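Retro notes, structure queue

What went well: the backlog is down to a handful. What didn't: a couple of records were mislabeled last round, so from now on we paste the full input next to the output in the thread. Example, using LLM class flavin-dependent oxidoreductase from Shinella sumterensis:
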Amino acid sequence: MKKQILLNAFNMNSVGHINHGLWTHPRDRSVDYKRIDYWTSLARTLERGLFDGIFIADIIGVYDVYQGGVDLTLKESIQLPVNDPLLLVSAMAAVTTHLGFGITVNANAEPPYTFARRISTLDHLTDGRIGWNIVTGYLDSAARAVGQDALTAHDTRYDRAEDYLEVLYKLWEGSWRDDAVLGNKQARVYADPSKVTPIRHDGPFYRVEGHHLAEPSRQRTPVLYQAGTSGRGRRFAARHAECIFITATDRQAARATARTLRAEAVEAGRAPEDIKIFIGISVIPGRTPEEAQEKHRDYLRHASPEAGLAHFAASTGIDFSRYGLDEPIEYGTSNAIQSATELAKKKQWTKRQLLEELALGGRYPLLVGTPDIIADELESWIDEGEIDGFNLARTVTPECYEDFVDLVVPVLQERGRYKTGYGGSSLRDRLFRSGDRLPLDHPGATYRI
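Corresponding output:
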């Protein structure tokens, strides 16, 4: 049986996200990101297309590496302004039944005790459709904004996240027993006190003592997403992540990363099928090759490669504005996104080459063509790259998602590579077909009462 493709819409609560400059396109509606109907309409489209979820990115801080400031960041709205992603969920959940929500929250941004309640609340309100994309931050501007002198060292950020997760597992999995809630009006007992206990945690970064404020939700622990592919990031993902977001420029690179991640998951005591691997991708479909190519040319006229370069500068910590177009770039060690720096160093990209890579404003693989051609490419990435699915980056919104749903999804369904209906009771169950809760070989399950 052919592997079916998993699919998330990749978005952000902002004007600009990955493919920069396209907010200037006359058909683009991303400037309406502040309106609820913008998001509810998108959610309906995605559920009509049977998307597994919407994956919402987020940052704390601003992109101020390029040219040593935020002038271009503000002019091109390079993820600035950016609003809170969690506040979108209730509105989108209210107009959908099955669509999942992968929400990015920095593990170093707020105390684990209050964050645990926010996620449990959303898991209740969505009836088990919440995922959390665990990030540790990579911007010095974010560290300064919350009162730190500079960003903590890369590996230390992951050490802190490990401690953070242990607190969360104790709260989500271990504070309330499954049968604690009685809801007995006659006996006037909503919850059995003997079955609700406080957690006690005294770790290297966090000290917590208290009861989890929320009763158990369908999933208890949300589906755990993670995007780190540095050495330390991979070890963290192998231990904790259920869905891993990787960046790959070709199928061979995707396959190598996927095999490494699955092998490290096995070393961590988990099964290789316990993780689903996604890559970011951009798609421009047309009913004919000519229509697709014309749409691509049209998009390019509005895209901003320089804005993409400013975004990449923040990812690597390198101010590319200081270099000439063909001048060799010094790619040293990075305290930001190490995988981004390693890729650029391996490719020995010059500024001119980076701008070519970022022609559409983003650096994900770009597929342009008829629905059949795009389906061929997606299948090839799944089979040769040994991945499970895609985070579909927006171009001109909402038409990029509407085009994919109307043109590409039916072809994938005809080929048996995409579902024809939703199944499962929760986001986790739909992705893994193994129930609502963390599997027993996941470290979080060890805190279960």
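Agreed that this is the format going forward. Reviewer comment attached to the example: The chain has a mean pLDDT of 94.
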